[in-house]
Amino acid sequence: MRCIVVYDIPDDRLRTKVADLCLDYGLDRIQYSAFLGERMTRNLMDELMQRIQRVLRGRPGKVLLLPLPANLWRERLEYWVEKEDS
What we know:
alpha+beta; about 40% helix; Alpha-Beta Plaits
């Protein structure tokens, strides 16, 4: 299953640790504070969120992990422009 993780964490050090955890779990950065996981089981999603909670330890921050069933992923809308070469 795919998932998206988005977060708003004011502390730079904690934000970096959460980003590193997402990368450790094989997620790809899609925005500065957003990651996409392509092949995540429910157990891996739960484990990732538990590790994120341990990093934050009650300090300010919001983290949202959204599982995306295949049918919702197929209905996504995207727009992007690649950087032009100068």
